[in-house]
Design brief:
The complex is a heterodimer of chains A (about 120) and B (about 110). Chain A is mainly β. Chain A has no helices and 10 strands. In chain B, strands 2, 4, 5, 9, 10 and 11 form a 6-stranded mixed sheet that branches. A 5-stranded antiparallel sheet of chain B has the order 1-3-8-7-6, with no helix packed on it. Classes of the chains: A mainly beta (about 120), B mainly beta (about 110).
């Protein structure tokens, strides 16, 4: 079946603008994650959705960042008033979380450049 | 927090040769994930090891988990250009994955 997809693949925006990134998880995966990877750095956890439970937003770096997920489907990550330090690859992952399986399957990422 | 150290940081191998990457944890390993990252392709899940002594293979890639040493190794046999990329080991604390810094593998023809 199809893997995790993300759109857009690349986004260039001006400082101060809002951006919206989209993630389509693997069908049937109950968990969805957003990560950020800055150039030359490791993955930074942003937010986690599990079914209808309250999301874990502990990784969001500021209140300019927010994310939504409708049921167990699409998720959007919104960054308001973008800053240059927001430039990074934003990765989405989904996981079955059934039968004790937690391996995460990643999308190709959205490369965000804030000029 | 649990820290993962990968070695080597990078390596260059001649096509057809074998290579090994190590991942050492600062704490007891209860499970470990191996991923591969290629530019523009995100992270590709390779395998998950859950038990001490466990060994898994996928195509020409074999990974082992040594709980006592708090270490895992990833071995690639007869490397091919398709094996080039960044290999990351990761651990899960509940649902959050944290990764080592990665090992960059270059395969030369």
């Amino acid at each position: 079946g199809a893997g995790v997809s993300q759109s857009p693949s690349n986004k260039v925006t001006e400082k101060g603008k809002d951006v919206e990134l989209r993630c389509d998880p693997i069908s049937g995966h109950t968990a969805l994650y957003w990560y950020r990877q800055r150039l030359g750095q490791g993955l930074e956890f942003l937010i986690y959705f599990q079914g209808n439970s309250a999301p874990d937003k502990s990784g969001l770096p500021s209140d300019r960042f927010s994310a939504e997920r409708t049921g167990e489907s699409v998720s959007t990550l919104t960054i308001q008033r973008t800053q240059q330090e927001d430039s990074a690859v934003y990765l989405c992952a989904s996981s079955p979380t059934t039968g004790g399986r937690y391996e995460q399957y990643f999308g190709p990422g959205t490369r965000l450049t804030v000029t | 927090s649990q820290e993962l150290e990968q070695s080597p940081q990078s390596l260059i191998v001649q096509e057809g040769k074998n290579l090994t990457i190590n991942c050492t944890s600062s704490k007891t390993l209860y499970g470990l994930y191996w991923y591969k990252q290629k530019y523009g392709e995100g992270l590709i899940f390779l395998m998950m090891l859950q038990k001490g002594g466990e060994e898994k293979s996928h195509e020409k890639i074999t990974a082992k988990l040594d709980e006592k040493k708090q270490q895992s190794s990833l071995h690639i046999t007869a490397s091919q250009p398709s094996h080039a990329g960044i290999y990351l080991c990761g651990v899960s604390a509940a649902y959050k994955l944290s990764f080592g810094a990665g090992t960059t593998v270059t395969v030369r023809a």
